[in-house]
């Protein structure tokens, strides 16, 4: 079939297998040229098909030859419908991993469910015996509770007051004022249910109970803080409260892991164009400015480079830890000079100058690339088979 980008609201509902492969291959190439070493050899990555989870899988496999099990929630293509970008990314990743003789297997299904947790534990027991690192990198709009069956939906809303600020439509480049009403108590709770720490805790409890965590095993969950401009919609909003819950649960998990001499970490990462972040109002405009300012200062990093730096710091035992015990790999984004420049440009930005004073074009290109579109050396006019196999899928 001919595969073109198609949209529903903010979401691109098609993906191009060859373009997604290109995206993955470029990350692999970078890591092969910029090796990193690590003590973690058998890794479980929950949320491994796009964004930070995918980069974590690529960096650990090709950076130091780790064996990985990835848990993803993606859809395979058919003769008439494309699969998800995460499906194609995983197919491309596994193809290269197997070619280079690395162990890589993938479980596709709802990571929030007991069924997928049990399936993952069985696979660890059978193939790896134990894992020494668990990376938790889920971003999801909904979660079905494994015991009550209750379905919760996460919302991106401020708390207490309505939020008014500038935003941009990254398809038309129109800068406009947006107003988002405050979340209800129930919406706040539902967002915590989805994006808070309960599921991460359940994973670690079940892995411990099944005795599949190596002595000294660690776990890392990814979080975000960001600047004051986005506080009302991010850090002080519904998603921020959920992130606080995730961060607080690391303390509990840390205590539980003490019995095997392990540790739980939160890594606060940089803002990036991903499927999740492009859906947050105000954030695309902020990322467009961030990209411009960081590139001008020679500080820019994509997901692969962030994760590369995270594990380099781990290996050297020189993690940048803040007063709340979190690893701060977002230090370059949060630098005072970077944020001061963004604040200034934020006041000035309008529809007329958005292309000049921000990297909105880059944001849009990067967004399309997430779905495999916009690569010069992929022929989008050529008939392409949307049905692609993931070799080691369970
Ligand atoms: P993403 O949307 O690119 O990736 C999310 C992953 O979760 C995908 O692999 C998806 O398949 C998987 N997933 C979602 N629901 C699932 C389910 N029920 N079962 C199994 N897998 C499921 O997101 P991302 O931006 O890489 O975010 C990952 C983490 O990093 C999140 O915790 C996010 O808050 C954090 N983070 C993101 C940014 C950013 O700017 N994107 C910055 C800092 C931290």
UniProtKB/TrEMBL annotation:
Residues 321-383 form the Enoyl reductase FAD binding domain. It catalyses: a 2,3-saturated acyl-CoA + NAD(+) = a (2E)-enoyl-CoA + NADH + H(+). Residues 81-313 form the Trans-2-enoyl-CoA reductase catalytic domain. The active site is at residue 234. Keywords: Fatty acid biosynthesis, Fatty acid metabolism, Lipid biosynthesis, Lipid metabolism, NAD, Oxidoreductase. The keyword Lipid biosynthesis applies. Signal peptide: none annotated. GO terms for molecular function: enoyl-[acyl-carrier-protein] reductase (NADH) activity; NAD binding; trans-2-enoyl-CoA reductase (NADH) activity. Residues 3-78 form the Trans-2-enoyl-CoA reductase-like NAD(P)H binding domain. Pfam families: Eno-Rase_FAD_bd, Eno-Rase_NADH_b, Enoyl_reductase. Its EC number is 1.3.1.44. Substrate binds at residue 224. GO terms for biological process: fatty acid biosynthetic process. It is an enzyme of class 1 (oxidoreductase). Pathway: Lipid metabolism; fatty acid biosynthesis. InterPro entries: Eno_Rdtase_FAD-bd_dom, Enoyl-CoA_Rdtase_cat_dom, FabV-like_NADH_b, Trans-2-enoyl-CoA_reductase. Involved in the fatty acid synthesis (FAS II). Catalyzes the reduction of a carbon-carbon double bond in an enoyl moiety that is covalently linked to a coenzyme A (CoA). HAMAP family: FabV_reductase. Belongs to the TER reductase family. NCBIfam families: EnoyACPredFabV, PRK13656.1. Monomer. This is Trans-2-enoyl-CoA reductase [NADH]. It comes from Clostridium acidisoli DSM 12555. The gene is fabV.
